[in-house]
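quick one, 153 residues, struct below
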Amino acid sequence: MDDKQLQQLIEDISLTYFQLPFVHRATFNPRLKTTGGRYLTFTGNIEINKKYYDVFGMDELLGIVKHELCHYHLHQRGLGYKHRDQDFKILLKKVGAPRFCSPIKKPASSPSSYRFYKCKDCHLLYKRVRRVNLKKYRCGKCRGELKEVDEPY
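---
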Protein backbone atom coordinates (compact mmCIF):
# COMPACT_ATOMS: atom_id res chain seq x y z
CA MET A 1 0.00 0.00 0.00
CA ASP A 2 1.33 3.45 -0.87
CA ASP A 3 0.33 7.02 0.10
CA LYS A 4 -2.15 7.32 -2.76
CA GLN A 5 -3.99 4.16 -1.73
CA LEU A 6 -3.93 5.30 1.91
CA GLN A 7 -5.44 8.65 0.92
CA GLN A 8 -8.26 6.90 -0.93
CA LEU A 9 -8.85 4.48 1.96
CA ILE A 10 -9.14 7.31 4.48
CA GLU A 11 -11.50 9.27 2.24
CA ASP A 12 -13.71 6.17 1.85
CA ILE A 13 -13.73 5.41 5.59
CA SER A 14 -14.53 9.03 6.36
CA LEU A 15 -17.59 9.00 4.12
CA THR A 16 -18.72 5.53 5.25
CA TYR A 17 -18.40 5.89 9.03
CA PHE A 18 -18.60 9.66 9.58
CA GLN A 19 -20.69 10.80 6.57
CA LEU A 20 -18.22 13.69 6.24
CA PRO A 21 -15.45 14.20 3.66
CA PHE A 22 -11.75 14.07 4.52
CA VAL A 23 -10.28 17.01 2.60
CA HIS A 24 -6.69 17.03 3.84
CA ARG A 25 -3.67 14.79 3.13
CA ALA A 26 -2.94 11.34 4.52
CA THR A 27 0.54 9.84 4.33
CA PHE A 28 2.66 7.09 5.78
CA ASN A 29 5.34 8.45 8.11
CA PRO A 30 8.26 6.03 8.58
CA ARG A 31 9.63 8.11 11.48
CA LEU A 32 6.72 7.26 13.79
CA LYS A 33 7.98 4.76 16.35
CA THR A 34 5.64 4.54 19.34
CA THR A 35 2.24 5.28 17.83
CA GLY A 36 0.03 3.91 15.08
CA GLY A 37 -0.82 7.32 13.69
CA ARG A 38 -1.30 10.97 14.45
CA TYR A 39 -3.59 13.82 13.51
CA LEU A 40 -1.77 17.11 13.01
CA THR A 41 -4.00 19.91 14.29
CA PHE A 42 -2.03 22.71 12.64
CA THR A 43 -2.28 21.26 9.11
CA GLY A 44 -5.27 18.93 9.35
CA ASN A 45 -3.23 16.08 7.86
CA ILE A 46 -3.08 12.50 9.16
CA GLU A 47 0.12 10.45 9.35
CA ILE A 48 0.06 6.67 9.72
CA ASN A 49 2.83 4.30 10.87
CA LYS A 50 3.21 1.79 8.01
CA LYS A 51 4.83 -0.75 10.32
CA TYR A 52 1.44 -1.42 11.94
CA TYR A 53 -0.02 -2.32 8.55
CA ASP A 54 2.97 -4.55 7.77
CA VAL A 55 2.84 -6.37 11.12
CA PHE A 56 -0.90 -6.56 11.93
CA GLY A 57 -2.62 -6.13 8.56
CA MET A 58 -5.69 -4.30 7.31
CA ASP A 59 -7.87 -4.70 10.42
CA GLU A 60 -5.38 -2.83 12.62
CA LEU A 61 -4.93 -0.17 9.94
CA LEU A 62 -8.70 0.40 9.76
CA GLY A 63 -8.84 0.85 13.54
CA ILE A 64 -5.99 3.36 13.49
CA VAL A 65 -7.58 5.30 10.61
CA LYS A 66 -10.96 5.46 12.39
CA HIS A 67 -9.24 6.66 15.57
CA GLU A 68 -7.38 9.43 13.75
CA LEU A 69 -10.52 10.43 11.84
CA CYS A 70 -12.30 10.85 15.19
CA HIS A 71 -9.62 13.40 16.14
CA TYR A 72 -9.92 15.01 12.71
CA HIS A 73 -13.69 15.43 12.47
CA LEU A 74 -14.12 16.59 16.07
CA HIS A 75 -11.34 19.16 15.72
CA GLN A 76 -12.71 20.41 12.39
CA ARG A 77 -16.12 20.99 14.03
CA GLY A 78 -14.65 22.67 17.12
CA LEU A 79 -15.58 19.87 19.55
CA GLY A 80 -13.46 18.04 22.11
CA TYR A 81 -10.96 16.03 20.05
CA LYS A 82 -8.44 15.00 22.72
CA HIS A 83 -8.30 11.55 24.30
CA ARG A 84 -9.72 12.78 27.60
CA ASP A 85 -12.73 14.59 26.05
CA GLN A 86 -16.18 13.05 26.31
CA ASP A 87 -17.02 13.90 22.68
CA PHE A 88 -14.01 11.89 21.56
CA LYS A 89 -14.88 8.86 23.70
CA ILE A 90 -18.47 8.84 22.44
CA LEU A 91 -17.46 9.08 18.78
CA LEU A 92 -14.87 6.30 19.20
CA LYS A 93 -17.57 4.00 20.54
CA LYS A 94 -20.04 5.02 17.81
CA VAL A 95 -17.70 4.16 14.92
CA GLY A 96 -16.04 1.18 16.62
CA ALA A 97 -12.56 2.65 16.73
CA PRO A 98 -10.02 1.45 19.31
CA ARG A 99 -8.82 3.82 22.01
CA PHE A 100 -5.24 2.52 21.62
CA CYS A 101 -3.48 0.53 18.93
CA SER A 102 -1.87 -2.84 19.54
CA PRO A 103 1.71 -2.59 20.80
CA ILE A 104 4.50 -3.76 18.53
CA LYS A 105 6.82 -6.00 20.51
CA LYS A 106 10.40 -4.83 20.50
CA PRO A 107 13.08 -7.50 20.54
CA ALA A 108 14.52 -7.91 24.02
CA SER A 109 18.06 -6.64 24.31
CA SER A 110 20.42 -9.45 25.10
CA PRO A 111 22.56 -9.07 28.23
CA SER A 112 25.67 -9.75 26.15
CA SER A 113 25.15 -6.48 24.26
CA TYR A 114 26.34 -4.56 27.33
CA ARG A 115 29.90 -3.81 28.35
CA PHE A 116 30.81 -3.43 31.99
CA TYR A 117 33.49 -1.12 33.33
CA LYS A 118 34.76 -0.83 36.88
CA CYS A 119 36.76 1.88 38.57
CA LYS A 120 40.11 0.58 39.86
CA ASP A 121 39.95 2.88 42.91
CA CYS A 122 36.34 3.07 44.20
CA HIS A 123 35.05 -0.05 42.36
CA LEU A 124 32.02 1.78 40.93
CA LEU A 125 30.42 -0.29 38.14
CA TYR A 126 29.36 1.21 34.81
CA LYS A 127 27.03 -0.56 32.34
CA ARG A 128 27.31 0.72 28.77
CA VAL A 129 26.07 -0.29 25.33
CA ARG A 130 28.86 1.56 23.56
CA ARG A 131 32.53 0.94 24.08
CA VAL A 132 34.25 3.45 26.39
CA ASN A 133 37.68 4.81 25.46
CA LEU A 134 39.65 3.89 28.61
CA LYS A 135 42.49 6.29 27.75
CA LYS A 136 40.12 9.24 27.52
CA TYR A 137 37.47 8.67 30.22
CA ARG A 138 37.79 8.36 34.00
CA CYS A 139 35.46 7.51 36.88
CA GLY A 140 32.82 10.18 37.43
CA LYS A 141 32.92 9.69 41.19
CA CYS A 142 36.62 9.65 42.12
CA ARG A 143 38.38 10.33 38.79
CA GLY A 144 40.03 6.91 39.02
CA GLU A 145 41.11 4.79 36.09
CA LEU A 146 38.51 2.48 34.49
CA LYS A 147 38.96 -1.13 33.43
CA GLU A 148 36.66 -3.38 31.40
CA VAL A 149 35.31 -6.39 33.29
CA ASP A 150 33.60 -9.51 31.95
CA GLU A 151 31.25 -10.23 34.84
CA PRO A 152 29.55 -7.28 36.53
CA TYR A 153 29.43 -8.91 39.99
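Residues 12 and 104 are 27 Å apart (CA to CA).
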